[in-house]
DNA sequence: ACCTCAAACAGAATATAATTCTATGGAACT
DNA sequence: AGTTCCATAGAATTATATTCTGTTTGAGGT
């Protein structure tokens, strides 16, 4: 795909914040008729600029209101140890996000559980059984100030 | 709203991972006909279990592939200083997420920019102009291992 | 055990939006 | 100026969302 123009970026920005608009509504927002807007959105999907559409749930209402960022240091830094760690992490549903990071620790996890009691349980039973882990450090989320759920769109 | 049953949770889980299914498809997945599924989803939206629907974009393709977690310590801990900090952060588009956390630092930011050069620019110009900030510490994301974009659904 | 009521359901009917198609207009190029 | 290409508007069509109706199921009460 060539380059995205102003309208494409505007559409991405809108859809990233709320994808429930009808094509007609989108058309009005970018001052076009529905058909070119439809084609543009399909092209953005086809070319991977839009990966997928998802529903954002209310964690509190689902009794999943307790978020923790957990730093992880591995015991050793073999390729196989790292690979095993990743594999284990993928299967733990409380781990919502996982990043390989620079610095004092090797990984940063975002964990979501019901409450502190469940976090304790998570650390002992779930992380406790991941043998590649050397040490951990927890940062508890006291409140979520801002969340735009992913990449922003540069308006250049 | 009373309590969510098995089917509601299943619908939430499906929609959280991919909200592009038609009502008919959802119906097949949960072994019901389209109308009750439609009503259930509408109820989940109306009662706030589903907050909204969004498009997930490809940060790499949008030249926004460089993620950093930035720890922030405030100069002081007045209510007014904290409030001002939050206000400033809300207006910085590179800051995708912001949490008030426990521990050595006061806040954790997730920042997304084009590359290291732009991060440097972000730190000097954007964070640099937020006067309430005392010190910062950056954890660079070398790779994203896992991301499920928000709350998981407990399958209890 | 029977009755009553309310809720959830399947299936049909309708409304609305998505998607496709066709023809037009303008910009770039020759 | 003529030609080609591409994005567009608007109409036509198709698919889906949404509403409606009648039926079934299950809980609570007698």
TrEMBL record, chains A, B:
Gene3D superfamilies from the entry? Answer: 3.30.70.920, Winged helix-like DNA-binding domain superfamily/Winged helix DNA-binding domain
Q: Which domain of life is it from?
A: Bacteria
Taken from the record, one Pfam family name reads HTH_24
Q: Which GO terms describe its biological process?
A: regulation of DNA-templated transcription; response to amino acid
The record's Gene Ontology cellular component field reads: cytosol
**TM region positions:** none
Q: Which UniProt keywords apply?
A: DNA-binding, Transcription, Transcription regulation
GO MF terms on file? sequence-specific DNA binding
Task: Pinpoint the HTH asnC-type domain residues.
Answer: 4-67
Q: Which CDD domains match?
A: HTH_ARSR
**Cleaved signal peptide residues:** none
* Designated name of the protein: Winged helix-turn-helix transcriptional regulator
The species is Flavobacterium rakeshii
């Amino acid at each position: 795909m060539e380059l995205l123009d102003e309208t494409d970026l505007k559409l991405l920005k809108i859809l990233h914040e709320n994808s429930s608009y009808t094509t007609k509504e989108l058309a009005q927002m970018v001052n076009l008729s529905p058909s070119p807007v439809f084609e543009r959105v399909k092209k953005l999907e086809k070319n991977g600029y839009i990966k997928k559409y998802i529903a954002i749930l209310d964690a509190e209402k689902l009794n999943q209101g307790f978020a923790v960022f957990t730093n992880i240091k591995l015991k050793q830094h073999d390729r196989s140890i790292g690979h095993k760690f990743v594999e284990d992490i993928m299967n733990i549903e409380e781990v919502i996000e996982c990043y390989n990071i620079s610095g004092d620790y090797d990984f940063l996890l975002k964990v979501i559980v019901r409450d502190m009691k469940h976090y304790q349980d998570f650390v002992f039973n779930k992380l406790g059984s991941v043998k590649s882990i050397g040490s951990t450090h927890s940062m508890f989320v006291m409140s979520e100030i801002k969340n735009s759920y992913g990449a922003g769109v540069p308006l250049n």
